[in-house]
Amino acid sequence: xxxxxxxxxxxxxxxxxxxxxxxxxxxxxxxxxxxxxxxxxxxxxxxxxxxxxxxxxxxxxxxxxxxxxxxxxxxxxxxxxxxxxxxxxxxxxxxxxxxxxxxxxxxxxxxxxxxxxxxxxxxxxxxxxxxxxxxxxxxxxxxxxxxxxxxxxxxxxxxxxxxxxxxxxxxxxxxxxxxxxxxxxxxxxxxxxxxxxxxxxxxxxxxxxxxxxxxxxxxxxxxxxxxxxxxxxxxxxxxxxxxxxxxxxxxxxxxxxxxxxxxxxxxxxxxxxxxxxxxxxxxxxxxxxxxxxxxxxxxxxxxxxxxxxxxxxxxxxxxxxxxxx
Length: 325
Hints:
GO terms for molecular function: oxidoreductase activity. This protein is α/β, with parallel strands linked by helices. It has helices at residues 17-27, 49-57, 71-85, 111-142, 168-171, 177-197, 225-235, 260-275, 303-307, and strands spanning 8-11, 35-40, 61-65, 92-95, 154-158, 203-208, 247-249, 285-287, 319-321.
């Protein structure tokens, strides 16, 4: 499915791997986007030959030179895209470009490596959203659709399960410290973007493509590029407001990226034990799904919590669970 029928799409990091395959599969859909902007550092270089071949066959594919670690290059790219769109907005921005230092352990990672990885993997997507925000807002405003969707206006940040704090023990066989930290920061950026841009009608979601057989993922990986991208493109059309700010995998399954919910349970079990309180199954605690209550309630638990229900108002996302589980 053509990215939720988005008319205009821009992708970063398109000369190889997941980015290149996203471009190929978008163009191959029965109803491809009117415009696909594929960016990479050197569209005229040898590594972009496949992109140039595609562009020669698809007049709706535009190659744009862009190094997302360079703020001025991002500004220049936004001007080029705006001119090509000629009054149209941008429906879908996919921040795919990323770099990775496979040997970065806690013993070997240094400031230069950490800064370089952050500039591409975290700062780059932030600056891309800033630069293309006017075009995204234009698309959202002019759309006849209600609610949030990829066909109206969306920012999709290609992230990783390695940016999940809760999942770290399961994947720490490869420490890759700078990459992990940058993707954890990207997940937070996605949440912040979701809360900030919602009023403008822009959906913001982070997607984990899986462990993919690319230069970065190596041939040891579990998924082919084709399988991963088919999964990602099947997820895009189903994304809505309820997914905004979340991290999902290529199958559309949610990935917890903080330890907040588990900490909620642990804290409330402690309250229940210390207070000698027994709860009925129907007595639910109501907490924001992204918030660790330990950061809000210190010392003695609130009386309302001991009574069975704690309500935290004026917060955007909620999570319910049985305190006895």
